[in-house]
Predict the 3D structure of the following.
Amino acid sequence: MPLAFPDNRFAVRMAADVPWHGGDPLATKIERRTVESETVAGKQELASPAVRRRLERPSEGPREMVRPLRYRWYPPCKEFADRLAALVLLVIALPVIVVTALLVKLTSRGPAFYTQTRVGRNGRAFTIYKLRTMIHQCESLTGPRWAVPGDPRVTRIGNLLRKTHLDELPQLINVLRGDMSLIGPRPERPEFVPELERSIPGYRQRLLVKPGVTGLAQVQLPADVDTDSVRRKLLYDLYYIRRLGPWFDLRLLLCTAFYAVGVSYQTLGRWFRLPSREEVEAEVQQFVPEPPRTRRAA
């Protein structure tokens, strides 16, 4: 069943003639244009004819969609619990946010806070809030691209904020607004989503739930650097959706706190009995078909 992308305000066009930026095949140009939603059968709204054709075309995706196995009562309650917890955490974290914002402002040129468009549940675009960790206007010459290990665009303070994930604290505002959840798959940038959907069958399923400030993949795997790393994280995201429940969310929230102070992935997995890579793959492989193989030239 294809997913509808309601209220999406951005039509993303991959430019085939655009040179790669910094060797990153996912660096793209985007055409940003306002589109008018239209009503389908009086209920379903789609962003644009181009997006509608892409979503309704025959898919090579999984034969069935991932669904939570139990705790059917939890998803309706999760949003209320998220907002309540985010409000409490925001009050506690406010002094930390203020101090780190001042450090960012005093040590590099540009604003302390950074906004960026991300893709949320059902493909709806929203604005995410972060503390700036890179030099101001870092993509003005390169275009959209992922961060890489040792990225020269990251400032000294930004490197510390990234290691401790303190740059993500302003996203508690996104949780209060209803854009995000505390726990869930991390939201991706709209510039990269079309290419990821083409390269990774089943990728669209991660949009079935709200994106999270943190998640299972974030406390078990390093940051994305290419499509292979995104494919690995997709398995963890789908495992989370399948095992969605209050106790799992609580464990991941505690994991994030320990991870922020430097506890390793392996130690967190043992302490909180998180699934191994083999368990994750066995659980959700049926929902993620193998990517199409390309023939090698003789």
Remarks:
- DSSP finds nine helices and six strands in the chain.
- Residues 38-287 form one domain.
- The beta strands are 38-40, 44-46, 113-119, 125-131, 181-183, 212-214.
- Residues 1-48, 50-62 have pLDDT under 50 and may be disordered.
